[in-house]
Amino acid sequence: MACIHISVLGNTVVRRDGADIRLTPLTTRLLLRLVTAEGEAVPCGDLYTDLWGEPVRGRISRPHRTEVQKRVLELRRALDSAGASDSTSVLRTEQALTGQGRESAYRLVLNPDQIDVLEFTGLFNQAAHAAPATATVLLTKSLGLWRGRPLAEVADAVFAEPLIRRLTTTYESVCAELIALHTDSGHPELALPVAERLAAGRPDDPEALSALTKLRAQLRERHGAELLRREFPALRTSLVVKRGDLFEETDASLVAGFGDTFDTATERDAIISRESVQGQLLHRRYGGDRTLLDRELRSGLRAVTPAGRESARDKPKGKRLRYPIGTVVPLALPEPGGRAFAVAYSHQGLDLVARSNPEDLGVSLERLWESVAVHGLLRPVAIPLVGAGLARVVLRGEQVIVMIVESFLRACRQGPVTPELRIVLRPQDLRGVRLSEVAQYVEALTGDGRHRDGGRAARDDWREDEPTAVSGSIDDP
Fold first, then answer.
1. What pLDDT, on a 0 to 100 scale, did the predictor assign at position 210?
2. Which residues contact 51 (CB under 8 A, 6 or more apart)?
3. CB 458 within 8 A of CB 441
4. What is the pLDDT of residue 259?
5. pTM of the model
6. d(CA 56, CA 73)
7. Which end of the chain, N or C, is surrounded by fewer C-beta atoms within 10 Å?
8. Is 141 helix (H, G, I), strand (E, B) or coil?
């Protein structure tokens, strides 16, 4: 017996033993007319009227009957195995009693696994009595059978209208129930493509559009402060860009930029601004205890060879011992488990103005990830938009983010660094960052953080001019 499958949810496709069978347009119309009969026999006269559009008055004539039988024969050859008996045939001949007496009639006999219409509605009906998780599976399978407007080749035929209308209503119910199940189970992201599909099929329906809009808003709310997230499975790490306050990231190690003298005095904002990252580190994590922070810094700098020392005459305020750009000091914060990384990426001038450039920032980031890999205890790491404040590097905000991301992923390819890097942007930072360009760059990366085209970093394409050096009054706010 031949293995037959007929798909009519969309353009008609007939497969026999896995191979597509081509039917003439008129025979396709005959098939669909029999499908709309839903297992009932259709008299020959009705078939002629519906296929040729010519009403039969009185008893069907022999020429008309012959035309119908030709189409029936073609369809039977496509659907039945050679030598199939009438009891095993998919397309069976019967006798129907009409107003003109007995007349040949034809019935399509198919199991649910032989035609998608029966399978589609059967799965929908099963889901009505199933537990939520099982119903989700059944409805998802049902939705997968829908390839477009059903019975497309006879969509304008009067005989097809009732079945098309019922199938369309069922499809909309499948979508609505699947959206509700995904949403109720806490997975609106799975409901979104279903809602988008439903709204696309009903562009003039305000309810479908409203439901889609609410679902999208719900997804955005679930992300909270997150503006961008990308997983890198091959590196076992995640990248998050979020709006917020760096010092509210209590479950993460913090990164704080310093000048090469590691100054910490914030009195009257003369040397370091109280609002800078290192100023906030002192006051919000060390309770303003400068002695404790300086002791932690000195301990971490003992193994580092200074780059030079300034005289009291040249630098009367602040610390005078300088360390190489890129020096990183891991800090154990006063709160239990708290950790921060102090990284020197700017040069503190004798005039107390911090100066840096992209090259210094790049070196500092490389050294930072090396230290995090050793001392970070595989905790999440939160980093601000380094270089974007008073010691700003002459790069646009999105270029700085890409620079951070590139250096981080490069380090991750050498070994574990952190399971999650969070780039935390303040509201004022967001005004200077084109996040759409950052997202475009990030989404173009492979699972191991490489460029898909092997080309240059996106920040090179964005650079409007070659940055040299930058200056500000003190460190980053």
1. 87
2. 26, 29, 30, 33, 68, 71
3. yes
4. 93
5. 0.57
6. 21
7. N
8. helix
Instruction: State which H helix or E strand residue 236 sits in.
Output: none
Count the Cβ atoms, other than its own, within 10 Å of residue 316: 10
Quote the CA–CA distance of 237 and 422 in Å, as a whole number: 11
- Token code pair at residue 303: 């193994």
pLDDT surpassing 90 at residue 462: no
Q: What is the DSSP letter of 268?
A: G
- What is the arithmetic mean of pLDDT over 439-453? 89
Say if CB 151 and CB 8 are below 8 A apart: yes
Tokens for 285?
């994590």
pLDDT tens string 402-429: 999 999 999 999 999 999 999 999 988 8
User: Do the Cβ atoms of 64 and 56 come closer than 8 Å?
Assistant: yes
Residue pointed to by tokens 């039917």: 23
d(CA 348, CA 355): 7
φ/ψ (deg, to 5) at 145: -80, -20
- Length reported for the chain: 477
What's the pLDDT tens digit per position in 191-221? 999 999 999 888 888 888 888 888 888 777 7
For the chain, the first-to-last Cα distance in angstroms comes to: 78
How many helices (H) and strands (E) the chain has is answered by 15, 17
The residue assigned the tokens 């039945």 is 80
Alpha-carbon distance of 425 to 388, in angstroms, equals 10
For residue 20, report the phi and psi dihedrals to the nearest 5 degrees.
Answer: -70, 140
pLDDT at 47 over 70: yes
Other CB atoms closer than 10 Å to residue 417's CB: what's the count?
Answer: 25
Distance, in Å, from the CA atom of 299 to the CA atom of 289, rounded to the nearest integer, reads 16
CB atoms within 10 A of CB 94: 13
